[in-house]
Amino acid sequence: LKNYSDDPTKTTRLSTSFNIRTEKVANWRDYLRLHCYPIDKFINEWPSNPTLFRAHVAEYCRSVRGLALQLIEAISESLGLDKDYISGQLGNHAQHMALNYYPPCPQPDLTYGLPGHTDLNLITILLQDEVPGLQVLRNGHWVAVDPVPNTFIINIGDQIQVMSNDKYKSVLHRAVVNCDKERISIPTFYCPSPDAIIRPAPELLTDDEPAVYKQFTYGEYYEKFWNRGLATESCLDMFMAT
Ligand code: OGA
Ligand code: NI
Fold first, then answer.
1. Out of 3-7, 207-211, 215-219, which region has the weakest mean confidence (pLDDT)?
2. Which of 209, 231, 137, 208 is CA-nearest to residue 176?
3. How far is the C-alpha of 130 from the C-alpha of 174, rounded, in Å?
4. pLDDT at 33
5. What's the CA gap between 75 and 229, in Å, rounded?
6. Beta bridge partners of 127
7. Does the beta carbon of 158 sit less than 6 angstroms from any atom of ligand 1?
8. For residue 174, how far is its CA from the centre of ligand 1 (angstroms)?
9. For residue 174, which of 74, 116, 199, 223 is within the disulfide window of CB 3.0 to 4.6 Å?
10. How far is the C-alpha of 155 from the C-alpha of 60, rounded, in Å?
11. Whose CA is nearest to atom 8 of ligand 1?
């Protein structure tokens, strides 16, 4: 109760569904959402019970950040850009994390854990337990991404799609619920800081392939994302060049 808030701008909060202020249909999910980079700025807001929560989550966040930075370098290089290009566009960088709890649902056909959406950030590193639930849209069909022990799922988010000028696609995904097993998933959202200016990489633009998106700050994008209540699957349409 101490941490509960329906205000998406809060940097540490417990909430339910997606954004209960704006949505018409609720989702079968509770979540704790934490900002976790720079750690020292946020750790004192995190729950202190159980006692080891802060220490363990901080250690996890530091390690996962290392992985995110490696992936971002590899993505830069794969686009033919300098390996530090994307990292250099992210202002002071940011990292958020959700601890999603999907309780068993008596009528799973009537709702979702999370309906179809793309993640607004750069890349998402998802740790999931052994209960299936994640699905991705591939060639017009929803495909289950069943858990493989000791692996992460890496999802491309909207900001990589923008910077790569559509060479990478932000993956449409959703979480379904089931009637007998609870499910826990822990996504890390690696992000630009709110002041970072995001735009398609100029080196990738040609006369034949002009910028698909206009320039915006990540803060502007973040606000649009949270206020639409997942009523549309993606916010990218709102930031097209023309
Ligand atoms: C998310 C998300 C998927 C899952 O939190 O953005 O897509 O499997 N989670 O819980
Ligand atoms: Ni997601």
1. 3-7
2. 137
3. 17
4. 96
5. 30
6. 186
7. no
8. 7
9. 116
10. 18
11. 134
